[in-house]
């Protein structure tokens, strides 16, 4: 096999792309540096230029996933009007959209941030959480949030949207029902956490 030539940094990206495909296809347990090297078209030793071992590759994949999630949420929030209702709706739809067909990667991301030594993955996770948390915190400052405990409200929001993502990806929510189900869940959240109660325009 003729080894492909990569520019600086592009081998790392190619390996992460291949690793993500492998995780989505067969789960994290199926990931092998040797197989990734074969798929990308480099020597078996080449991945170690960027990843010391399989765990380092998984950590990097989890970190990249959280970075992508943060950008996805930020873009959705930026396009929404500034009040709590539209921004919360944007968060919920963006999160569910990001996780669609990607639950093996999501599971890897959440498991990876708890691994000892995975400081970069944990920092990326915290940065991703900070995006929707800022929406809740801003609503608290403006008086839109009824709950005094901002973190409790944020946990409720996250539990709801992540639960929706799990239900969607397990087939318990039909594709044609996703939008309506997410909107109904957000209406329920607003009833519980918004100072005005009920649906916010």
Walk me through the structure:
The chain is an all-alpha fold and 201 residues long. The protein folds into 2 domains: 1-51, Arc Repressor Mutant, subunit A, CATH 1.10.10; 61-193, Tetracycline Repressor, domain 2. The chain is built from 8 helices and no strands. The protein has helices at 10-26, 33-40, 54-78, 84-99, 103-112, 119-142, 150-169, 178-193. Helix 1 packs across helix 5 (103-112). The mean pLDDT is 90.
Please outline what is shown here.
This protein has 201 residues and is mostly helical. The chain is built from eight helices and no strands.
Main features:
mainly alpha, single chain, Arc Repressor Mutant, subunit A, 201 residues, Tetracycline Repressor, domain 2
CATH architecture of the largest domain: Orthogonal Bundle
Identify the CATH class of the largest domain.
Answer: Mainly Alpha
Structural class: mainly alpha
Q: Which percent bin holds the helix content? A: 55-70%
Number of helices: 8
How would you state the average pLDDT, rounded?
Answer: 90
**First and last CA, distance:** 59 Å
CATH superfamily of the largest domain: Tetracycline Repressor, domain 2
What's the layout of helices and strands?
Layout (H helix, E strand, L loop, with lengths): L9 H17 L6 H8 L13 H25 L5 H16 L3 H10 L6 H24 L7 H20 L8 H16 L8
